[in-house]
């Protein structure tokens, strides 16, 4: 009986095996075929360059902020506060920043020990909304009313990897009133967006930025003066560029931070590109060529993730059968928004989703709140990608559900930054007094290389290059505003 049962089990097992098992011992002449591959070493370099660019995308964006500060301000760099006295214009280089905010930002390092950033308390005119992120753009904490200090201001302490408790344990420091965070990188970035009330101005926001303080915890008893760098009239460019500088940035990430466990395999592959921790980066001409070829594929991959439906953005309005009712999309982060954007789940590091997100954004918050809602416009009412050489009209309804204001900003499809060398990058309801209003209270906005006659006040130039739109609602009237309101599609009115 046992023999019969065993035979039956073996028969079932054999039947369940995939067909490929029949050719288990068929080498398919792989030794000879592999010998025919030409330029093997170079092809491996290209593959590794492609995957490196995708893997290190978020870390590179943070390095570029630091490099921009160093380029634009003599002696500037770590632990400085960069600020502006007016909102950004087309001379600035930031991934999808807005043109309505006088930001404050900077780069910190805990390489010499725990670092402190003092965030000012909210006033009757000003308060901050923003976050501090790691080298990998992982949000560490939010600040202001929505953050750890609840608008009361606070001393945020960031402990470096392997901190030895020499200046007190996390618990000890918290008892002293510090807001303490353990981290896995030495480099951090911050970006704070001021909220203006009771007649506050952008100049007030610039002054408020100069009350932020940064210093090493070891110097807390007598902290040195923080340096404040005014970038108002500076063509500050923090964009990642997909050329040789991209891998210079990757090398800086490797040299200036500990290599995390989840990055060690990738760090090993970087040797083929000449990037080795503790060694000077001096790539050969062949390595440079491979890196540029790999970058092209990486960019193409991330771009496809950006524009293809349901990859990075998804249709906000759909019918009961799931068919899109509008061309406007929302940022489809999935559960990452609730988790605080680690881009790691139980089984994997979400490399593609992480890269596709930081391909066009920076400084995601630890807790994604309802203070701003972003709609992404990639296509017109016919489902065709927006053409920078054509002219489009967007009707913004009078009942647009934004308690503060709404804005529509043009971004270059190539760089994910403002279109360069234009006088205006967007329009908002803050421009209501200057724009032409329709009799029903709505506004018609126009986008194209030239303003339609008589519509100059309602026109946003595209510079003739392909672009996308971000339509922001500041303080939506409810979390479910989209259930009874819909933004009109972009309508092409001329070629």
Automatic annotation (TrEMBL):
Q: Which InterPro entries match?
A: DUF1214, DUF1214_C_sf, DUF1254, DUF1254_sf
Keyword Signal listed? The answer is yes
Domain of life of the organism in this record?
Answer: Bacteria
- Annotated DUF1254 domain ranges read 79-214
Protein name, UniProt field: DUF1214 domain-containing protein
Keywords tagged on the record: Signal
Q: Which residues belong to the signal peptide in this entry? A: 1-21
The major lineage groups are: Bacteria, Pseudomonadati, Pseudomonadota, Gammaproteobacteria, Alteromonadales
Where the record annotates domain DUF1214, the positions are 372-477
């Amino acid at each position: 009986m046992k023999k019969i049962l065993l035979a039956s089990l073996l028969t079932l097992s054999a039947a369940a095996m995939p067909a490929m098992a029949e050719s288990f011992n068929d080498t398919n002449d792989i030794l000879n075929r592999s010998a025919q591959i030409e330029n093997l070493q170079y092809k491996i370099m290209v593959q590794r360059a492609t995957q490196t660019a995708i893997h290190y995308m978020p870390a590179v964006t943070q390095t570029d902020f630091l490099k921009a500060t160093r380029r634009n301000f003599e002696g500037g760099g770590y632990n400085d506060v960069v600020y502006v006295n007016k909102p950004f214009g087309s001379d600035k280089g930031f991934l999808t920043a807005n043109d309505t905010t006088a930001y404050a930002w900077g780069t910190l390092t805990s390489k010499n020990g725990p670092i402190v950033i003092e965030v000012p308390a909210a006033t009757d005119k000003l308060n901050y909304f923003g976050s501090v992120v790691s080298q990998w753009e992982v949000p560490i904490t939010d600040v202001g009313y929505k953050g750890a200090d609840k608008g009361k201001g606070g001393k945020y302490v960031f402990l470096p990897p392997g901190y030895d408790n020499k200046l007190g344990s996390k618990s000890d420091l918290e008892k002293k009133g510090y807001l303490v965070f353990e981290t896995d990188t030495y480099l951090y970035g911050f970006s704070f967006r001021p909220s203006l009330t009771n007649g506050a101005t952008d100049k007030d926001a610039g002054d408020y930025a100069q009350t932020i303080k940064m210093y090493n915890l070891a110097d807390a008893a007598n902290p040195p003066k923080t340096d404040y760098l005014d970038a108002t009239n500076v063509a500050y460019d923090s964009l990642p560029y997909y050329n040789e500088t991209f891998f210079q940035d990757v090398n800086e990430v490797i040299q200036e931070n500990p290599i995390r466990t989840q990055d060690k395999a990738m760090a090993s592959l970087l040797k083929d590109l000449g990037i080795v921790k503790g060694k000077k980066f001096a790539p050969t001409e062949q390595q440079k060529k491979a890196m540029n070829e790999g970058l092209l594929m990486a960019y193409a991959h991330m771009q496809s993730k950006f524009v293809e439906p349901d990859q990075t953005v998804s249709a906000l309005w759909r019918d009961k059968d799931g068919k899109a009712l509008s061309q406007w999309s929302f940022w489809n982060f999935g559960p990452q928004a609730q988790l605080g954007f680690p881009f790691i789940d139980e089984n994997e590091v979400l490399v593609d989703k992480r890269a596709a997100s930081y391909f066009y954004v920076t400084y995601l918050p630890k807790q994604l709140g309802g203070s701003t809602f972003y709609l992404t416009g990639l296509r017109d009412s016919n489902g065709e990608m927006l053409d920078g050489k054509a002219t489009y009209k967007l009707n913004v309804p009078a009942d647009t559900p934004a308690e503060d204001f709404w804005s529509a900003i043009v971004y270059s499809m190539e760089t994910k930054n403002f279109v360069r060398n234009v006088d205006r990058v967007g329009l908002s309801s803050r421009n209501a007094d200057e724009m032409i209003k329709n009799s029903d209270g709505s506004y018609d906005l126009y986008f194209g290389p030239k303003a339609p006659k008589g519509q100059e006040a309602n026109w946003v130039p595209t510079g003739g290059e392909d672009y996308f739109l971000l339509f922001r609602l500041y303080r939506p009237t409810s979390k479910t505003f989209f259930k009874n309101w819909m933004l009109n599609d972009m309508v092409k009115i001329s070629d």
